[in-house]
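request received
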Amino acid sequence: MAHAAVHDAHNDTHDHKPQGFLNRWLFTTNHKDIGTLYLVFALVMFFTGGSMAMVIRAELFEPGMQLVQPEFFNQMTTIHALVMIFGAVMPAFVGLGNWMIPLQIGAPDMALPRMNNWSFWILPFAFVLLLSTLFMNGGGPQGGWTLYPPLALQGGNSIAFVIFAIHMMGISSIMGAINIIATILNMRAPGMDLLKMPIFTWSWLITAFLLIAVMPVLAGAVTMLLTDKYFGTSFFNAAGGGDPVMFQHIFWFFGHPEVYIMILPAFGIVSEIIPTFSRKPLFGYQAMIYAVASIAFLSFIVWAHHMFSVGMPLGGELYFMYATMLIAIPTGVKVFNWVTTMWEGSLTFETPMLFAIAFVILFTIGGFSGLMLAIVPADFQYHDTYFVVAHFHYVLVTGAVFAIMASVYYWLPKWSGNMYSERWGKIHFWMSVISVNVLFFPQHFLGLAGMPRRIPDYNVAFADFNMISSIGGFWFGLSQLLFVGVIVHAVYFSKNRATSQVWEGAKGLEWTVPSPAPHHTFTVPPVIDDSMLAHGDVTH
Amino acid sequence: MKPENAKLEPTKPVAHDARGIAKVALGVVFAAFLLGFAMVPIYRIACEHVLGIRMSGEAADAAQVALMTEDKSRTIAVEFVANVNSKLPWTFKPENARIEIHPGALTEVWFDASNLSDAAIVGNAVPSVAPAEASPFFNKTECFCFTEQTLDAGESRRMPVRFVVDPQLPKETKTLTLSYTFYANELATKQLSVVPVPVAGVAKN
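response:
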């Protein structure tokens, strides 16, 4: 632990933070500052996309048209999805990766720090471009985030703004992914073998490979949309010999790995938190890595389960059905390993652990409804209904978003040097976990009863469950203000200083540096002892 | 890394430098971008050769069709569907919605199209055969969908389709549906107004 003493001494004299706001934030190449920028940006986008969700739920509170025009409603559903996926969840994970990967592998910074700066600062411009369409004549895109032609091309010129915004987001996440791959493969401290790396770092390494493999495919697909609309090509234009169904194939070849890009880092986070608060090593560390790798591989060969109803040959439907169901096996391995990690552990239920346990239960519900959707004959009934909406919100909100919140509570003391208010963190958790189920669980029933998604008005038969869902929605939305309150209090007002270790059961290199983590860490590579690693002895 | 790191001997030598890894990753990115576009021909090949769906809208090989003999022992139904894209102010319908034929027999059916607008418009009909697996057995020797169709303001036209259903058609297929959708060919329509040539009959390009 000699290096820690060096750090402390070093930290006492000067911290090498750049002076001045612009130097500190705009020109920063420091992984911690860039991580903070990503996380703050993601939080802002979470509330931007969330306010759009509030508009959607307010309009759906009762049958009939009350508050907004159908065109505006469609813009809300479209931009809500784009903002939440590309603005909130993905940047939050990249921010966590930036903050934690160098700390977890004992690296002084990311491998390509200037590119790191660039990949963050593209994002605000991309979202200004996207959101600016809301204030233009004709409004924003209305064809859904999947941008299916011909519908997406029949609106106004907002589609061009969306396409360029997606190009920029894609460039940003590709650069972020390249940086993470280079950092993990190249910057590990001596002794940090690949199969000793913390599980969060592992899940990010696999996610980064998914990103560089599929974001360019999305870029290609939207480029084809652009040339179809403005340059007279007919990739997807049936009148010119193209095929609109081909867009769906290309889009979901990107889209299915994309949904795993949004969940694999969450698996990593939960696999860090559960051992800490169970005071046991992670059960089946290598099995967890192989499970993530298998899920990542399978994500490339199941895409057409998003489009069972386009009129595929029977052989195609059967193949995609069975391949999709295969994913339940490595996912089941993960869920059982989390449960087994908790088994006979000395459990305590601090806020990160509460969110992590809620993740395991509620993500599993989302996984089960995914299995139901994978059944071809059943999918013809569920397709494009609220059942699908319920399914992907269970895996994305109670899955990805809950994991991000768990990670914020888990690592915030390391970032800020202060403990958050456990009391208010728990209030935030219970408000969130109850309201999110009031919000999304009734949507399963709505979907099974046949309520289509992406509509501003509905049959009065669906009125009661929609009202319950909307009440849950407002409740969940308001509860997130508590999250901001807890973070602001912890960073600026909390008097409760965190120790280096923070959590009694925490293991791993990030807990050997002081809290708050100094601006520069591991300028001298740490000496790694296997007992410091969260998953215990993995050499057996 | 900082120079002082050099003093500490790594237990495992680092194989790559960061720029090298980034270059390889960029290569993957570039290849993935190309793969997106490569999916256009891959999709066509997969449909035609793996799933057995006929994608080409061209006339069947006349010599091959001539070899097919009528199978009087078998009767199949052929249904006709005609759609017009909402941007094209035409009407379009089959003269018979459903006929019964023997596989191998040369059959002729007629479709009627009318231009309701007060301007000449070029349209293209895009065909589709359902079930898709049966599409390779549906051979068209003559079709208005092989060329662009120009209808003058208010003009109506009777258009033929001649086809032979291959007797090799799988036994379980008892009904075939031939569907057409007419789309406005905006580029060709624009050229009509630039060079106002009175067009009668089928436009050739």
